[in-house]
């Protein structure tokens, strides 16, 4: 590696602020008129956002996930799953509500469940918002 031949740049896998729902008003807007998709462990709420990218909000309350290590693990898995699917969810604000049964599942099972939910949510939203 010389100054003329720099090392290849690593891909940027960060989760930038513009891809997150941060303000209470953004969450409220999604909760007001959502398209819903869920199973026994997660509920996904979505609404069109008028942007060129998807944004994610996560609700993992202490009441259901008592230990911080559990909340952080679940949120990390949700963010990674969303990152992989965000092109499919372009133009949507999505809030993921976590239910307490989620702790019984291992990481691979959580990814499978979320993948299934992202697919069905994107199909539902495609019909409602973008057709």
Residue fraction in strands = 15-25%
Low-confidence stretches: none
CATH architecture: 2-Layer Sandwich
Whole-angstrom Rg: 16 Å
DSSP strand count:
4
Strand line-up in the sheet with most strands = 1-2-4-3
| CATH topology assignment | Ribosomal Protein S5, domain 2
What would you call the structural class? Answer: alpha+beta
Morphology: globular
Q: Please give the oligomerization state of what you see.
A: single chain
Quote the distance from N terminus to C terminus: 50 Å
- Number of DSSP helical runs: 3
Q: Strand count, sense and closure of the main sheet? A: 4 strands, mixed
Mean pLDDT: 89
CATH top level? Alpha Beta
- Helix content range of the residues, please? 25-40%
Number of domains: 1
Question: Can you give keywords for this protein?
Answer:
131 residues, alpha+beta, Ribosomal Protein S5, domain 2, four-stranded mixed beta sheet, 4 strands, globular
Structural features, described:
There is one protein chain. This protein has 131 residues and is an alpha+beta fold. It has a single domain, classed as 2-Layer Sandwich (Ribosomal Protein S5, domain 2). Helices cover 38% and strands 18% of the residues. It has 3 helices and 4 strands. Strands 1-2-4-3 form a 4-stranded mixed beta sheet, sandwiched between helices. Helix 2 links the parallel strand 3 and strand 4. Helix 2 crosses helix 3. The chain is globular.
What is the gist of this entry?
The chain has 131 residues and is α+β, with helices and mostly antiparallel strands.
